[in-house]
Design brief:
This is Major facilitator superfamily (MFS) profile domain-containing protein. It is a multi-pass membrane protein. InterPro entries: MFS, MFS_dom, MFS_trans_sf. It comes from Candidatus Raskinella chloraquaticus. The chain is an all-alpha fold and 405 residues long. The chain folds into 2 domains: 177 residues, MFS general substrate transporter like domains (Growth Hormone, Chain: A), CATH 1.20.1250.20; 194 residues, Growth Hormone, Chain: A. 82% of the residues lie in helices and 0% in strands. It is globular and about 60 Å long.
Length: 405
């Protein structure tokens, strides 16, 4: 049975991801509505929010390990709240520059919270509960992020732009309230060292630990493939599969259904099947999903594309829960923040490269050729999992950390 504290973490996770997703959806709509922003300015504002994941991740990992994940988890929502409050001021002043700074600050709070949460879970729970807890946390994230675009578009259209950011403020406040009485396990005692030495230690541990190296290799190829798919699917669907805009929305919803179903069942499936099965099936199902999307044509295109996106959502969600539990098991507590930060930075760094590569290939050779690249990258991800220690993992390894409560 999971401890009551996990319920507060689930609520806080939902609040933080809701605030971040609301800001992400509302940002371009607000920029167009209030600033008559050009595509370049909209891109810069969205990039300001995304850059927090690249700039803050590694130093954030050091802060988690030194300050302690519980304390940082409580502080991070306040940072998001401050950024969102500044965003409301920026909207009032019609200042796109202040808005860019505001969403960067708010996203920084999300980055730090995600790092703290992934480090805190193994300190509070026994290893046998990792998968179930991570599944519940991912379910909370999926439940609040998937409906956000529809809700925020309605708020901006029928109420006001400010209303969307007020909703984000309320979500961040929900996280603050949920964590207000959370206990504070002491941080790991570490001697003062140069930050670069701390970062190097985390990087080397990920590289030399076979399971973590397999996770990183698989995740890099998968995320490059997925963001290449994001970049090329709409041109492919419109020009080759001959789908309407409404059909495209329905096809994309297949991934949302897969993510939700995966999060709902992950706790049970991950604990009942050998890790190697899930860790190979995640990327392998993505190969099948991308192939279904590639062959989408004619009257059945909507169904094959939706089925393809379902496969890209369901099994990778199981993979995510499984690999998160693995990371928490094999990483010593004093290193967990930096290890999570290293993997997080690599993943977020490769995403724009995948999108650029997919878009460039689609522009030069057509979206069909770009989808072949997507299939190849997903296959590379499956190969990385199969040939690494992940493909030989019959059971969860012994935990490198002990629960504190």
């Amino acid at each position: 049975m999971l401890p009551p504290l996990l319920n507060r973490l689930v609520i806080a996770n939902a609040g933080m991801h809701a605030a971040d997703q609301i800001a992400l959806v509302a940002l371009p709509l607000a920029a167009v509505t209030l600033f008559s922003a050009s595509p370049a300015l909209i891109g810069a504002l969205v990039a300001a929010q995304g850059m927090a994941w690249l700039i803050v991740s590694l130093p954030g990992g050091i802060v988690v390990d030194r300050l302690g994940p519980s304390r940082l988890a409580r502080l991070a929502p306040w940072l998001s709240l401050a950024g969102l409050t500044l965003a409301l001021l920026a909207l009032t002043l019609a200042s796109p520059y202040l808005l860019g700074l505001a969403v960067f600050i708010s996203a920084t709070g999300t980055v730090l919270f995600v790092l703290a949460l992934a480090t805190l879970t193994p300190r509070l729970l026994p290893p046998t509960a990792f998968a179930k807890a991570n599944g519940r946390l991912e379910l909370a994230r999926a439940l609040v992020t998937l409906p956000a675009p529809t809700i925020i578009a309605w708020l901006i259209a029928h109420v006001s732009t400010n209303a969307a950011f007020i909703a984000a403020l309320a979500a961040a406040a929900m996280a603050i309230i949920a964590l207000s009485s959370m206990p504070d396990p002491p941080p790991s005692a570490q001697p003062p060292r140069h930050p670069l030495q701390d970062i190097r230690e985390g990087l080397l541990f990920v590289w030399h630990q076979p399971i973590l190296r397999g996770i990183l290799s698989c995740a890099l190829a998968w995320n490059a493939a997925f963001f290449a798919l994001v970049a090329v699917f709409v041109p492919f669907a419109l020009n080759i599969a001959q789908l309407s805009v409404q059909d495209i929305g329905l096809a994309l919803s297949g991934q949302g259904v897969g993510l939700l179903l995966g999060a709902l069942t992950a706790g049970t499936i991950v604990t009942r099947f050998q890790p190697r099965f899930i860790l190979i099936l995640g990327p392998l199902s993505s190969v099948a999903g991308a192939t279904l999307i590639f062959i989408s044509a004619g009257h059945s295109a909507i169904y094959t594309a939706a089925a393809g996106y379902f496969l890209v959502g369901f099994c990778p969600m199981l993979w995510l829960v499984c690999q998160t539990s693995l990371r928490q098991s094999v990483t010593p507590a004093p290193l967990l923040g930096r290890v999570n930060a290293t993997i997080q930075l690599a993943i977020y760094g490769v995403r724009p490269l995948g999108a650029l590569l997919g878009g460039a290939l689609a522009d030069r050779l057509g979206p069909g050729a770009a989808l072949v690249l997507v299939i190849a990258l997903f296959a590379l991800s499956a190969l990385a999992a199969t040939l690494s220690d992940l493909g030989r993992l019959r059971a969860m390894p012994a935990a490198a950390t002990e629960p504190l409560v």
